[in-house]
Amino acid sequence: MRIDESRALTIQSPGMLTTVQDAGRFGWMASGFSPSGAMDLAAMRRANLLVGNSMDMAVLEMTMTGVTATFGCDCVIALTGADMAASCYGQLPRYRAVAVRAGDTLICGSAKAGVRSYLAVAGGFALEPAMGSCSTSLKFGLGGYEGRKLRAGDTLPLRCPELPVPRLEERVLPAPLWPGDATQVCLRAVLGPQDAHFTQEGIATFLGGWYTVTPASDRMGIKLEGNRIEAVHGYDIISDGIAPGSVQVPASGQPIVMMADCQTTGGYAKIATVISVDLPLLAQARPGDRVCFAAVTIQAAQKAARAEAAALHRLEKL
Amino acid sequence: MNSYPAFLPAGDSALSVAFGDEINPEINARIRALCDALAAKPIRGVRECVPTFRSLLVLYDPCRLGYDRLVQKLRTRLAALGGAGQGSQRVFVIPVCYGGAFGEDLAFVAAHAGLTKEEVIRRHSAPDYLIYMLGFLPGFAYLGGLEPALHTPRLANPRTGIPAGSVGIGGEQTGIYPLASPGGWQLIGRTPVRPYDSARAEPILYGAGDFIRFAPVTEQEYVQLEQKQAAGGTIWEVRQGCV
Asked: Are B133 and B212 found together in one domain?
């Protein structure tokens, strides 16, 4: 497909792993498709709301290092998530809508803290959804931009809306404290579905200590290392469905938190499930960072989910 | 000890309804019955369901539906279901070219079973295999009903690149690789049928509760079927009812 560069974002340098992601591909899990979607949904949705998009539109998710890219038309953009020291004629602040002009080049560096940074463009990318979503599934070569991570020379078509984004200077949000200076974070989790497979000591171990994020972590799962979690009779179950946030414990006794690109089914016991509003925190944990788990009730977890939804709803009126 | 069905929380946006702790068609049929009932008359706030061997994962929006209320609604639905579901009774007849370059482990499987290659093919293509669930890869069907004589251990060293359409045996299971992938199953044949094709109107060919029957074809027929498919033809058959 030939793309009009005057209505596109042209990638000069793609960064380590940059993909197009929206809120995820739903309705296909029963056929074996993971939902995919942004790892840090909280940051991704705020980027969209800052530029006046609906919150679940497709954005760029940049991992560890960001893009260098040139805008073919005047745009309003916002960067959220990890601080990649972005610049465009001077420093570009995060969590703020910024106007850029046709021909401007955005230069992102490496994440100073955190892992994933999000770039939203007002009007969004003019990409065809695949099976209902613009999220890239790297595993299946599906969705996003040609089903793959971005490369130098790619031109992402932009919608470039005619209408200006209103009250640009008021479109600012406080950047969250995480990711930031801290190197450890606590995650709330609901025990189950297979907490009964673990001993009392195993559950106390899981809730009682710090687990270090290993470099083997990716969009499928965050692999952790710490005290071994003890099971009653082995770690295998008859394969069942996996919800994002599930904490699988294989025979190593070391937990793996299943993330956006996780398999839909699996045969390891799941001791707990990280609550949906805390998954973005884990998405920003770097190898070497430490996490701990605090058990909460489903009711508390759902209250937190509703509070986040209400906060996002208020931001729609930015 | 659990009593079934058991409602197991999977975080704030999902729960698992477990129907038992073993793999058998009756348990699986009850899961499908609930899944079908939820598809026919959705519960507001339920996003999607993932049927598996012995449980149904229900994903829902906690802003629209609280956990306790969902459990209550599911209990009502379950009570209304009564016995096991009917199942779809759709049988997908999938052409397979056994042995040769397409099934390099056929000789090993035959030797392991103490049967001739022809007998392995005859037995493997005889039953209608129940699709218990899809998972692992898009369109990967976990099939039940492989004859015990054909159970064969997985490879000690998994292959890195297995072509899409490969038909294999791994332990007590048999199935089709829907995508090129690494894998440790014994490869006995290949089908030109693509269980997953993102460009097709129905990207996934079949679902849990359907059946698969393998129909042996020659290498020449395989090539012809491949050409027919490339020209837009349908190369699988769907029959109602199973043997």
From this structure: yes
Q: Which residue of B has its CA nearest to A141?
A: B198
User: Last residue of a domain, which of B51, B81, B111?
Assistant: B81
Tally of CA atoms within 13 A in the half-sphere of B205 that contains its CB:
24
> What's the domain count of chain B?
2
**Whole-model pTM?**
0.93
Instruction: Choose, out of A238, A242, A274, the residue to mutate when testing the contact with B (most B CBs < 10 Å).
Output: A238
Cα separation, A297 vs A272, whole angstroms? 11
| Separation between Cα atoms, residue A287 and residue A264, nearest integer Å | 25
What is the per-residue burial (b if ≥16 Cβ within 10 Å, else e) of B97-108?
bbbeebbebbeb
Residues near B213 by beta carbon (within 8 Å), at least 6 away in sequence = B91, B92, B93, B94, B125, B127, B128, B129, B242, B243
Residues B66 and B165 reside in one and the same domain: no
Q: Return the CATH number of the domain spanning residue range A184-315.
A: 2.40.100.10
Nearest CB partner across the interface for B137, out of A32, A273, A276: A32
Cite the DSSP H helix spans in chain A. Answer: 41-50, 200-208, 279-283, 298-315
Domain with CATH 2.40.100.10 in chain A: 184-315
Instruction: Report the pLDDT averaged over residues A151-163.
Output: 92
**For residue A5, pLDDT beyond 60:** yes
Q: A110 vs chain B: nearest CA distance in angstroms?
A: 32
A27 lies within 8 A of chain B by CB: yes
For residues B219 and B138, membership in a common domain is answered with yes
Distance CA A68, CA A92 (A): 13
Measure B3 CA to nearest chain A CA, in Å. 13
Report the C-alpha gap between B171 and B152 in whole angstroms.
Answer: 5
Question: How sure is the predictor about B83, in pLDDT bands with cuts at 50, 70 and 90?
Answer: low
Instruction: Please say which residue of B16, B48, B81 terminates a domain.
Output: B81
Q: What is the interface pTM, i.e. ipTM, of the complex?
A: 0.96
Does residue B71 lie in a domain region? yes
How many cross-chain Cβ pairs, A to B, lie less than 8 Å apart?
Answer: 144
User: Is A264 touching B (CB cutoff 8 A)?
Assistant: yes
CA angle B43, B138, B205 (to 5 degrees): 80
Residues B76 and B116 grouped into a single domain: no
Judged by DSSP in three states, B11 sits in: coil
Residues in a beta bridge with A265:
A241
Contact A29 B59 (CB under 8 A): yes
Q: Which of B9, B57, B136 sits opposite A241 (nearest CB)?
A: B57
A8 Cβ contact list (under 8 Å, min separation 6)? A72, A155, A156, A157, A158
Interface test with B, best of A240, A278, A303 (most B CBs within 10 A): A240
B124-158 pLDDT, tens digit each: 999 999 999 999 889 999 999 999 999 999 988 88
Q: A295 — contact with chain B (CB < 8 Å)? A: no
**Would you call A211 an interface residue with chain B, using a CB distance cutoff of 8 Å?**
no
Q: Tell me the CATH number at B65.
A: 3.30.1360.40
A265 touches chain B (CB under 8 A): yes
A318 token code pair? 């930015």
